[in-house]
Amino acid sequence: xxxxxIPTAECRFCGQLVQLDGDCELTxxxxxxxxxxxxxxxxxxxxxxxxxxxxxxxxxxxMLFGEDAGKSIDILRAAVxxxxxxxxxxxxLNLRGGVKASVSQNAxxxxxxxxxxxxxxxxxx
Length: 125
Known about the structure:
Blueprint: E1 8-10, E2 17-19, H1 28-38, H2 42-65, H3 72-85, E3 90-95, E4 99-105, E5 111-117
Antiparallel strand pairs: 1-2, 3-4, 4-5
Helix pairs in contact: 2-3
C-alpha cells in the first residue's frame, strides 16, 4: 500500500512548512501564497489582513460605482493598489454627473472608498 504525500509549502515570512489541503496542481508561487495565507506567524497574519483590506476595497468600488464609472473604475482600482502598497495616501476624482469618488487609508490601515453625489438645482425667473 502506497502512502499519499501531503503537499506542503513554505511560508515566505517564517519558513514554516504549511500543509496544503489536497491542492497538488498548484504552481510554486501559488503554493507559497497559499502557505502564507494559512500560516499563523505575525508577518503572515499582517499580510493576510492587508490582502483582505485590499480585496474589500476593490469589492466596495464595484458596489459603489459599478459600470457607471466607465474607465474611471480602472483608475480607482489602480489607486487601491497604490494605497495598499504604501505609494499613495489618498485620491479623489470628479466623475460625470456630480459624482465624486475618493479612496484613502485611515490610521487603522483600512482602505476607505467613498462616493459623494451632489445635486444642485437652480431656478431663475
